[in-house]
């Protein structure tokens, strides 16, 4: 026989406190403590589009990603599966920018689970995803890479700011030794050569030294040897009536560019009167910082508390450079806790997905490469640990602190330099902007900090 | 008496043949991590289990081999009894045995028998019924006779007349768990090791140097003592501790016992069921547990422990059932798979709908719904308003579990900003429901046109429909009712087995296959047994109890009491089509999702998701164990309404 209950749980009107009370009560009367994961959503913060008002759904997705990361870290299979199901359904990899961003983080977290967990099947799933992401391994031709980089001010901002500062610093100097530390294969140099070629007192002799990265495989990858690249640059320079020497020194951020620094020391002994310019474009953050503590102590170099990052800056300072430019992405990816890194990266890299709509059409090959590059970063930050985790961004303030601590002082960018940057930004979408922070320049997207540019002299 | 080989699985689904003893041995081979075997293996194949051990035995010879194994046991037992003064004899035999070329098991057994110079195995004296096991292709014959041709005779158990047929219930699994402790401590006892690596270790008496054998001996000895306190010294013989061989005999004994039950030969059944308990005690891992539950179920049937005692009734409360269900949910991926695949179909069917209504035929703890709620809350275009109707059985006492679940879900919905209404229906059978009740508005029926859009209905049934098959016409009535609520989607999850049709023996055989795989996967899904945490082990033990109750229902119950009437996807397809539904394919998205979710923390690699004709199954190795299908009202049926 049927018993019949009509039960419409009309919720009593409850304020925020009341709600919390009810939830707490719910937590307390968890009927079977042994079944901790059984009601996985109980008492946990949940993601809601409504409660966040007109905010986009990004915050909800961030919350769910954080829950997912926590579930993975605490090995809570049930919760992890539930959130994965939800996220898979609300964040398709070809959706809007928030959905694509979330999807990339989701893939990275799954990759993390497959790496830290013991599940072979998941590794297989992740391997398939890797194959899809192999786009980041695309080898650009020089022309393709140049036009790829020109799509957005992400790199161009730093080029423009640094070039202006360098040109001012070497005014009147006959021999300029430029050490280009960047991930973009000297794409900045043609403009700089051009700038120096046209200076009133005539071009200087340019010695260009680059670090031949041996192990860091951050995209983009250039489909060309360093020798080939060098001869092209030398040809370009001579076409501008600039004498140039090109040299590659294989060295890596993993050992604080040890061999590069050694070579520069030797060079300094033989070439008196040469102005040394060290141009650091988004490469210094690959040098291990303090949280990779293990490295410093196992490599037996210096006092254990001295990070490779600090060691590099100290070595740099000892070379008495004429100018050091430091350009990097303004975010902090150094937290040991993956959830903190996730939050930080999510709240920074959305810009890459948001901005891409303005310069690349949906479904284009270039766009897929561009997003694959961002995806590579996300996966590195989220899924990797130890020395494998190379994307160790620090914010401008932290870098400035490091520079001052190793004996540098900040030199401001002139109005001319700022004007150069501004006119470059005019070529791009309206969302991009520039602001001055103290003496430094900051690239912004819709008002959010993206990339900072700083210039330093020995104090 | 001859039984026809019965093909099941209508509509092109895979048919299961009636298992012969050889097949059962094969099934066990699967459990010991042997690679996949063709399900349609015919009898001329070489037995896989034994092949894995290095023996070439044609399946058709299995009966003969098994018979010899039985004889060997009896012979060794009688030798042991004869040579009780000289304990050294048996260890020597034991050590000799390993020197025989194992490629011909039959010959080896013959030589063992002759070497023992044993008297012919003692037949149980008249009027004892000898179980005669003719083995010929797919046909079983189980005759009860007092005289038969020698080759066909096998004694089923070395019974002494004195305690042969006292009708005592075998120790239920609670007692068996005593033995489990002994074995459970031995990390070697897991059957993970490749069978090839397992030395065919024989220990013939408690005096053996093998500590494991000794322990086993003690365990068995004490069990035997418990069974017949009058003769502790002459307890059941401690003979062969060889899990592989005992495994074969265990399956034989289970099948023989089921046959005896089918023949209503309760004396033989009684003897066999006791034998099963002894054999099961020497097993490790899932085999032991499955056999324990089947033995208990057989015992219940044999001793007609029905109607259930008061204790049983207490154990039968929906609250306990729900608790075990929760542990089953936690310890293996089956229910999670069920929920995700059904939710996927529901979410996709609700796409673009502003007013949605889910009718859940088995609310239980509401585990399926938080994920759907969250997905709806964040779907593009904003959440719909959701109505949930939860149906559940009457609970004992005044507990209103259905309401509490509704409250929790309402809280959740409020937190994530989903307009949510909930109603619980307590019914003892889904057949008591009427479509009118389900569609009725809360209190005032006038709000249908408030938003001008008719609500989209999803009917969700996870492992509920098969219960209706116990009452004639009930499932048809319920499906008519489902049709009447005009659902956009109907999601059906059912156990992929035929535990309803055919003879008792068919059902028994199918269930033995099915639950062997199930238990095996439970073991496999928890990671390495040694690593499994305390909590994980508790989950697993409770999940096994959950399945044990199903086994009990399938084997021991009949009529309206037998509610675990699982049927195959093929059978459900036919039934749904007749009721006016057409399949709504679960997309490749659902398949990908299911595979990924399974990969995340499913533990072993043994689980497999498969897609067949728009339905998804989750199985263990080659055996599909549960199936999700989705349905919508067929055009013709919609027009008729």
TrEMBL record, chain A:
InterPro entries: TF_GRAS. Keywords: Transcription, Transcription regulation. Residues 228-260 are annotated as: Leucine repeat II (LRII). It holds the Pfam family GRAS. Residues 383-457 are annotated as: SAW. A motif (VHIID) lies at residues 176-180. It comes from the Eukaryota. Belongs to the GRAS family. This is Scarecrow-like protein 32. It comes from Ensete ventricosum (Abyssinian banana).
TrEMBL record, chain B:
Residues 205-216 have a biased composition (Low complexity). Residues 190-229 are annotated as: Disordered. A motif (LXXLL motif) lies at residues 465-469. It is found in: Nucleus. Residues 47-120 form the Transcriptional factor DELLA N-terminal domain. Coiled coil: none annotated. Residues 404-436 are annotated as: Leucine repeat II (LRII). A motif (VHIID) lies at residues 356-360. One of its GO terms (biological process) is gibberellic acid mediated signaling pathway. It holds the Pfam family DELLA. The keyword Transcription applies. Residues 556-632 are annotated as: SAW. The keyword Protein transport does not apply. GO terms for cellular component: nucleus. Keywords: Gibberellin signaling pathway, Nucleus, Transcription, Transcription regulation. Transcriptional regulator that acts as a repressor of the gibberellin (GA) signaling pathway. Probably acts by participating in large multiprotein complexes that repress transcription of GA-inducible genes. The DELLA motif is required for its GA-induced degradation. Belongs to the GRAS family. DELLA subfamily. This is DELLA protein. It comes from Ensete ventricosum. The lineage of its organism: Eukaryota, Viridiplantae, Streptophyta, Embryophyta, Tracheophyta.
């Amino acid at each position: 026989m049927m018993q019949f209950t009509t039960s419409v749980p009309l919720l009593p009107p409850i304020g925020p406190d009341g709600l919390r009370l009810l939830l707490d009560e719910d937590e307390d009367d968890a009927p079977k403590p042994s079944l901790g994961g059984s009601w996985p959503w109980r008492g946990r913060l949940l993601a809601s589009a409504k409660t966040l008002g007109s905010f986009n759904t990004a915050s909800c997705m961030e919350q769910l990603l954080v829950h997912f990361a926590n579930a993975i870290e605490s090995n809570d299979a049930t919760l992890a599966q539930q959130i994965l199901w939800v996220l898979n359904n609300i964040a398709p990899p070809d959706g809007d920018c928030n959905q694509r961003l979330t999807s990339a983080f989701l893939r990275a977290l799954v990759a993390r689970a497959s790496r830290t967990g013991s599940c072979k099947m998941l590794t297989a799933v992740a391997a398939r995803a890797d194959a899809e992401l192999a786009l980041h391994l695309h080898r650009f031709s020089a022309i393709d890479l140049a036009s790829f980089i020109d799509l957005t001010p992400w790199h161009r901002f730093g080029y423009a700011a640094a070039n202006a500062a360098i040109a001012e610093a070497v005014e009147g100097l006959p021999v300029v030794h430029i050490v280009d530390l960047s991930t973009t294969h000297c794409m900045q140099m043609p403009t700089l050569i051009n700038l120096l070629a046209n200076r009133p007192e005539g071009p200087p002799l340019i010695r260009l030294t680059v670090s031949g990265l041996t192990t860091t495989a951050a995209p983009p990858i250039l489909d060309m040897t360093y020798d080939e690249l060098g001869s092209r640059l030398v040809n370009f320079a001579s076409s501008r009536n600039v004498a140039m020497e090109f040299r590659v020194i294989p060295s890596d951020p993993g050992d604080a560019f040890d061999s590069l620094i050694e070579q520069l020391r030797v060079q300094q002994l033989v070439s008196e009167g040469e102005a040394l310019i060290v141009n650091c474009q988004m490469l210094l953050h690959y040098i291990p910082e303090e949280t990779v503590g293990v490295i410093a102590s196992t490599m037996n170099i210096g006092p254990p508390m001295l990070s490779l990052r600090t060691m590099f800056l100290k070595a740099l300072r000892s070379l008495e450079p004429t100018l050091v430019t430091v350009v990097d992405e303004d975010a902090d990816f150094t937290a040991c806790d993956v959830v903190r890194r996730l939050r930080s990266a999510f709240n920074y890299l959305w810009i890459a997905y948001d901005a891409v709509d303005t310069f690349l059409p949906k479904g284009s090959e270039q766009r897929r490469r561009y997003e694959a590059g961002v995806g590579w970063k996300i996966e590195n930050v989220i899924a990797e640990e130890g020395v494998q985790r190379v994307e160790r961004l620090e914010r401008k303030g932290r870098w400035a602190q490091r520079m001052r601590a190793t004996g540098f002082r900040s030199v401001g960018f002139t109005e001319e330099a700022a004007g150069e940057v501004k006119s470059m930004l005019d070529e791009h979408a309206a969302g991009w902007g520039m602001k001055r922070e103290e003496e430094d320049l900051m690239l912004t997207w819709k008002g959010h900090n993206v990339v900072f540019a700083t210039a330093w002299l020995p104090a | 008496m001859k039984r026809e080989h019965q093909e099941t699985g209508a509509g092109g689904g895979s048919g299961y043949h009636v298992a012969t003893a050889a097949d059962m041995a094969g099934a066990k081979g699967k459990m010991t991590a042997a690679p996949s075997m063709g399900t349609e293996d015919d009898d001329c194949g070489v037995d896989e289990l034994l092949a894995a051990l290095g023996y070439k035995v044609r399946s058709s010879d299995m009966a003969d081999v098994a018979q010899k194994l039985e004889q060997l046991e009896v012979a060794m037992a009688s030798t042991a009894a004869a040579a009780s003064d000289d304990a050294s004899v048996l260890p020597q035999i034991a050590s000799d045995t390993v020197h025989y070329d194992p490629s011909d098991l039959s010959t080896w057994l013959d030589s063992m028998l002759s070497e023992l110079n044993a008297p012919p195995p003692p037949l149980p004296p008249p009027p004892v019924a000898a179980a005669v096991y003719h083995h010929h292709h797919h046909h079983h014959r189980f005759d009860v006779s007092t005289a038969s041709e020698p080759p066909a005779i096998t004694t089923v158990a070395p019974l002494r007349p004195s305690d042969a047929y006292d009708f005592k219930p075998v120790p239920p699994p609670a007692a068996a768990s005593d033995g489990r402790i002994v074995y459970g401590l031995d990390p070697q006892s897991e059957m993970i090791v490749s069978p090839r690596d397992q030395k065919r270790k024989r220990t013939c008496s408690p005096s053996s140097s093998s500590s494991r054998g000794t322990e086993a001996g003690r365990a068995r000895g004490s069990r035997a003592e418990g069974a017949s306190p009058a003769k502790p010294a002459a307890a059941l013989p401690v003979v062969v501790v060889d899990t592989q061989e005992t495994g074969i005999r265990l399956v034989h004994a289970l099948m023989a016992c089921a046959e005896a039950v089918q023949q209503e030969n309760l004396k033989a059944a009684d003897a066999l069921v006791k034998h099963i308990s002894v054999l099961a005690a020497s097993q490790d891992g899932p085999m032991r547990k499955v056999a324990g539950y089947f033995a208990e179920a057989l015992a219940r049937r044999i001793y007609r422990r029905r109607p259930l005692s008061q204790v049983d009734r207490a154990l039968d409360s929906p609250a306990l059932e729900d608790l075990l269900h929760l542990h089953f949910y936690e310890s293996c991926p089956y229910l999670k798979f069920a929920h995700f695949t059904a939710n996927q179909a529901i979410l996709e069917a609700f796409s673009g709908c502003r007013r949605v209504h889910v009718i859940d035929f088995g609310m239980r703890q509401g585990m399926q719904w938080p994920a759907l709620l969250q997905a709806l809350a964040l779907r593009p275009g904003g959440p719909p308003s959701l109505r949930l109707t939860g149906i559940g059985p009457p609970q004992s006492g005044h507990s209103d579990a259905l309401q509490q679940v509704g409250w929790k879900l309402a809280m959740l919905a409020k937190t994530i900003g989903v307009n949510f209404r909930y109603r619980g229906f307590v019914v003892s059978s889904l057949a008591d429901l009427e479509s009118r009740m389900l569609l009725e508005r809360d209190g005032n029926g006038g709000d249908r046109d408030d938003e001008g859009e008719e609500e989209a209905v999803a009917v969700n049934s996870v492992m509920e429909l098969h219960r209706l098959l116990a009452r004639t016409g009930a499932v048809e009535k319920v499906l008519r009712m489902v049709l009447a609520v005009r659902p956009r989607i109907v999601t059906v999850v059912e156990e992929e087995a035929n535990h309803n049709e055919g003879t008792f023996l068919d059902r028994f055989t199918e269930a033995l296959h099915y639950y062997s795989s199930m238990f095996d996967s439970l073991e496999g899904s928890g990671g390495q047994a040694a690593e499994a945490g305390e909590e994980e082990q508790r989950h697993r033990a409770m999940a096994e109890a959950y399945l044990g109750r199903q086994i009990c229902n399938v084997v021991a119950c009949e009529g309206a009491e037998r509610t675990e009437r699982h049927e195959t996807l093929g059978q459900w397809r036919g039934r749904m089509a007749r009721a006016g539904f057409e399949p709504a394919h679960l997309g490749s998205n659902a398949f990908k999702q299911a595979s990924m979710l399974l990969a995340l923390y499913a533990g072993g690699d043994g689980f497999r998701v498969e897609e067949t004709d728009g339905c998804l199954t989750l199985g263990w190795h080659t055996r599909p164990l549960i199936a999700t299908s989705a349905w919508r009202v067929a055009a013709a049926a919609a027009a008729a309404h």
